[in-house]
Amino acid sequence: MANFYNDNPALKHHLTHPLMRKIIELKERNYTDAEKYDYAPLDFDDAMDSYEKVLEIAGEISGDIVAPNAESVDHEGPHVVDGRVVYAEGTAKNLDALVKAGLMGISLPRRYNGLNFSLVPYIMAADMVSRADAGFVNIWGLQDCAETIYEFADEDQRMRYLPRVCAGQTMAMDLTEPDAGSDLQAVMLKATPDEANGCWRLNGVKRFITNGDGDIALVLARSEEGTKDGRGLSMFIYDKNDGGVTVRRIENKMGIKGSPTCELVFKNAKAELCGSRKLGLIKYVMALMNGARLGIAAQSVGVSEAAYREALSYARDRRQFGKAIIEFPAVFEILSVMKAKLDASRSLLYETTRFVDMYKTYEDIARERSLTAEERAEMKTYSKLADAFTPLSKGLGSEYCNQNAYDAVQIHGGSGFMKDYACERIYRDARITSIYEGTTQLQVVAAIRHVTTGTYLGRIRTYQEEPIAETFASIKEELIAMTARYEAAVEKVTAAKNSEYLDFMARRLVEMAGNIIMSYLMLLDATRNAEFEKSARVYFNMAKAEVAKHADFIDSFNPADVELYKQA
Questions:
Q1: d(CA 204, CA 193)
Q2: What pLDDT, in 10s, does the model give residues 545-554?
Q3: 98-114 burial string, b = 16+ CB within 10 Å, else e?
Q4: What digits encode the pLDDT tens for the residues 353-368?
Q5: Are 151 and 108 in contact (CB under 8 A)?
Q6: pLDDT digits over 495-525, tens only?
Q7: In the chain, at which end, N or C, are there fewer CB atoms within 10 A of the end residue's CB?
Q8: Domain-located, residue 265
């Protein structure tokens, strides 16, 4: 099999983005760790060399181990034995290979045995692992829950739990319950203080928990007696070694079958408070979910990559009417649009990741010393951009993932409906990406305020000022015109001062912003690297049509007609 890093030049392109120098210098505190750790980098070039070496290892394992195991894992799946999860044989082999390669705790500080990498290479590893097996990334990738422990737990908890994650122990986030899906304020799992033993006891049921039998779990539970809203919820750390939690069953899912989605029963389970009481949902889950949404955006891009490659390979090999089907316009159009969506969603993913990297690194520095006024302002800017771009990346990236998986099956024709071809599994795996960690509709809810407050428009103006290759001058002029139509559409919808009308149009406005932003990102990519020119032009053609479609709909729509869409 191929090395999934070396065979994909787009990854190195994004790894070498100009902002990476500043991110790494901040992350490495000007490389002072080199005095304490022999594996810490001495300078920027040394750090980038380390990133590339680790990504090559991740790419090799993804291509040589995880991908070949994907079909058997899909057929075998995990199962429950005596209330515990037993992974499929292939899953266990995958995890063992990644742990032995040191690919756990990638972004955690070195004092906890992590690699102290930026988030960008971690997300790239997730991108590659997802291309190999979308279900497996849900086990390996949940190590990002450790970031929540690092950010909000005390130092004693960090020292006890984070080295275990770096050593290969798996994690879970136990949020959802049978009567509390997206509405986490309705969580009722009860947390009771056990003062005699200096801990808390958890009782109740959690459902739809990814990797629910992980070694260490973050659990959202109701700690305040008599409360019914989010202010009564706290976050707890549960250690599987302490017992008290049983896996009642593993859900029988459409896709990502290698990932155990569990129903858990807590019976007087021992746990410890993470952070402060009452902030479980208000503060900690929000941070946890934003990290998870970035992970699903990476998963979506990886699955899109797999779908595109399967479709391209089949179209080159399959002959009809005396020639390969890739020579037919009906097919090569689909493939070019698939590639454009893949490239655009990946550009948005890594732009978002860089924003998250910047503000989180500044937050970390602020734990060590006071930030300067300039640093505080920069942290605030990147925090706002991360907040705006995360739902955009997850929402649009997962929708493109589903579209690419659909098109991969379509190009395969009847063969794509058969389990003999990988695109059948990819199609099933793709479907969940636009549902879990907040549906696309909920991503729109998170994103719309950045439409109405001008965050997206402000960023579009920033992109507009960046230099691009002269060959794209006409596209840039059209993007300026598209931005004017977007601005007018926002003005029309908000001027009505009708919240229901705004909610009704929110998806269209968010998609318009996303299409313009991704068009600019593709132009900037193509300016740095001519290999992206074709995708940039194809994506722009698609985006232009989409923006016009939404703008025309909004222009001609009477707000009172929202009533026509309501179902009795």
A1: 15
A2: 999 999 999 9
A3: bbeebbbbbbbbeebbb
A4: 999 999 999 999 999 9
A5: no
A6: 999 999 999 999 999 999 999 999 999 999 9
A7: C
A8: yes
Which residue shows structure tokens 């503060």? 283
Average pLDDT over residues 27-33: 94
Domain count, the chain: 4
Please give the share of the chain, as a percent, with pLDDT higher than 90.
96
Question: Does 15 share its domain with 161?
Answer: yes
pLDDT of 286 reads 87
Element of type H or E holding 248:
strand 245-250
Half-sphere exposure of 60 (CA within 13 A, CB side): 10
109 alpha carbon, distance to own chain's centre: 21
Q: Tell me the per-residue pLDDT of 462-482, one tens digit each, with 9 for 90 and over.
A: 999 999 999 999 999 999 999
Q: Which amino acid is at 372?
A: T
Find the Cα–Cα–Cα–Cα dihedral 19, 21, 27, 28, rounded to 10°: 180
Per-residue pLDDT tens digits for 94-110? 999 999 999 999 999 99
Burial class (CB in 10 A: 0-12, 13-18, 19+), 313: middle
Residues 64 and 85: their CA atoms lie apart, in Å, by 25
The two three-digit tokens of residue 248, written as one number:
């009642």
Distance, in Å, from the CA atom of 201 to the CA atom of 192, rounded to the nearest integer, reads 5
108: domain range? 1-169
Q: Which two tokens stand for residue 558?
A: 């009477």
**Cβ-contact 440, 482 below 8 angstroms:** no
The per-residue pLDDT for 568 is: 65
Confidence (pTM): 0.96
450 within domain boundaries: no
Q: Who contacts 89 (Cβ-Cβ below 8 Å, separation ≥6)?
A: 72, 76
Q: In the predicted model, is pLDDT for residue 405 greater than 70?
A: yes
CA distance linking residue 380 with residue 384, whole number of Å: 6
CA separation for the pair 209, 259 (Å, rounded): 10
On whether the CB atoms of residues 264 and 247 are closer than 8 A, the answer is: yes
235 and 367 housed in the same domain? no
DSSP for 344-356 reads HHHHHHHHHHHHH
Q: 């920027």: which residue's tokens? A: 44
